[in-house]
Amino acid sequence: MLIPTASQTVGPFFAVGLTRPELADLTHAGKAKGEAIVIEGQVRDGEGAPVPDAMLEIWQANAAGKYAHPEDRQEKPADANFVGFGRVFTDRQGRYRFVTIRPGAVPGCGNALQAPHIAMTVFARGLLKHLVTRIYFADLAAANEADPVLSAIDDPAARQTLLAKPVNSTPSAYRFDVVLQGEGETAFFDV
Amino acid sequence: MVDVTGYRREKPGNHPPNDYPGYSSTAKRAPKRLPIRLEHTLTETTGPTFAGGWEGPNQADLTRAGRGEPIGERIIVAGRVLDEDGRPVPGTLVELWQANAAGRYLHDGDQHDAPLDPNFPGKGHVVTDAEGGYRFLTIKAGAYPWRNSYNAWRPQHLHFSVFGPAFATRLVTQMYFPGDPLLPLDPIFNSTADTEARRRLISTYDPELSQAEYALGYRFDIVLRGRGATPMET
């Protein structure tokens, strides 16, 4: 067995090599099937200060609930115009914005259907290893109630941090803030 | 019904903890609560693929990005992306970024009083071949000061971003050079507790990889977590 390569911080200068502005729009300029939605928010540190040098990546299923990956063998339609991967950097106010498609539901452990969700990875100076969280949709209360991952979280406040809140706008927008530390700290996962 | 084979859990000391006082930027950014263990589902065992070509053509030669040759020591950095069982990880995106030979990044936030090199933007990316192999031609990055503590200097390093086959295999790391006297003093390098794991972050000089009269060769294999043994029915 080989020892895995250790994580090291992305540092403050990742924009040098990781800038890909096209990855802020997962809809492939509107060609992807499904309902276009916006996911936006702010990343804050343990003092509530905006984090202006974070990189966020997201990974999600298409509108039908199928991942664009060979190991997703579900009999659901693929979408050639939807990769499902996004990457953005926060701005000076710590804000970010993705345009994507509302994901369909995918199965989880124990054959239970998971509530629609988007996996998110947080990289920043000061994080030696990236953080992993999930974005769920606050307005899908019934699906969230039945979700095996959400319902396994005992602390209701922690659960609440995973719910993106609908914002009145067109297309439908959701606000999802990421709090790295302290009051309102986002629930992060050990994957 | 979907069969999902999860990825192996990391061993203690392999990856750095986020709460690491030696690296001062962790103080306000490391979460205080323990992460919640997540059993892998399709969400974690799938991840972006690069067969469609969205990442664009390979940029493996960082020395040809400007009008002329960049200043510095030319190096070839090559290796394989493997999993813990030594199996190659083909078709995955490897991104590289770095400072120039003087220890300066092409970035507004880098205020180090060292010259920029108009011929060296310092970025590249390649997709691994069928054997998991990758190869870059670049310049040896210079050491540079940072404000973590008085008179602190980062060892010479290259930044790597690797995806692997799944969301769960995502890795961002740094490659160091053998014999660098700054390594024992660097909190980022030393945040990894395990000696062998730290050693893996240091490339090895490989005379076979060097190109005569042209560039020095450094080998750097990147090992991603491996697959668990038993498929979980989900």
What characteristic shape of chain A results from the CA principal axes? Answer: globular
Strand tally of chain B is 14
Number of helices of chain A: 4
* CATH homologous superfamily (4th level) name of chain A: Aromatic compound dioxygenase
Give the end-to-end Cα distance of chain B, rounded to a whole number of Å.
Answer: 6 Å
Oligomer: heterodimer
> CATH topology of chain B, what is it called?
Protocatechuate 3,4-Dioxygenase, subunit A
Query: Which class of secondary structure composition applies to the elements of chain B?
Result: mainly beta
Nearest-angstrom radius of gyration of chain A? 16 Å
If you average the pLDDT of chain A, what whole number results? Answer: 96
Summarize model confidence as the mean pLDDT of chain B. 95
Keywords:
heterodimer, A: 191 residues, mainly beta, Protocatechuate 3,4-Dioxygenase, subunit A, nine-stranded mixed β-sheet, 4 helices, 10 strands, globular, B: 234 residues, five-stranded mixed β-sheet, four-stranded antiparallel β-sheet
Characterization of the model:
Chain A contains 4 helices and 10 strands; from the N terminus they run αββββββαααββββ. Chain A has helices at 15-18, 141-146, 148-151, 156-160, and strands at 36-44, 54-59, 85-89, 95-101, 117-124, 131-137, 163-167, 172-175, 178-179, 189-190. In chain A, strands 1, 2, 3, 4, 5, 6, 7, 8 and 9 form a 9-stranded mixed β-sheet that branches. With 234 residues, chain B is mainly beta. In chain B, β9 (157-162) and β10 form a beta hairpin. Chain B has a single domain (3-233), classed as Aromatic compound dioxygenase (Protocatechuate 3,4-Dioxygenase, subunit A). Chain B is 6% helix and 26% strand.
